[in-house]
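May I ask for an example protein's residues together with how it folds?

___
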Amino acid sequence: MKKTRALVYVALFAALIAAGAFLQIPVPPVPFTLQSFFCLLAGSLLGPWLGTLSVLIYLAAGLIGLPVFTQGGGFSYLFMPTFGFLLGLIPTALLSGLFMRRAAGLKGAGGTVARAALLFACSALLLLIGFFYYVLLNQVPGAELWGVFVSFVLLFLPAEAVKAAAASVLFGALGRYFPESLGQMKGMRQLQKAEKGQDRQEEDSTAGKEDR
């Protein structure tokens, strides 16, 4: 049952990532899309491995010719200047899952902000991968690097910050509804057990002092 549910969630997020490519605000040179948002959610809610699998399925579908990329699909898409942003989805999903596994037990507004900061770092890495892919593929001269960096990285940071914050809030709201094997509940429970163990130690220590 868990395996079936896992496959359903993986397929669902692969579809959401594909749909996110077309939910965009057309700002050159690369449109703002919801791809990275759904990628962050995939890693956060499904965990690092299943979240990454969702991304790989999406990329494989596009490379074999399905029109799931913003400008179509096919193997030739590897040579598109913006393909680096698609490659960046892989470490984004992986790292967001790993980070959320560690940060799942954080509570309150501080926990939401901390998770948002970690997810924003994942999104920033995606932008950097896209930037370097573009630079290497097009052999951008040094004099133009700053302009490309502004267009491909700095321009997108505010939008990525908003998406990271939204993903953090949704993770806090939805994470508990995902099975332990899919979401980060295992990490959350481990942290809760550790906290309980620490509380018990403190209680035992206090009781021991009172006995003495």
Summary: The radius of gyration is 20 Å. Residues 2-211 form a domain with the Arp2/3 complex 21 kDa subunit ARPC3 fold (CATH 1.10.1760.20). The chain has one domain: 2-211. Confidence is low (pLDDT under 50) at residues 180-185.
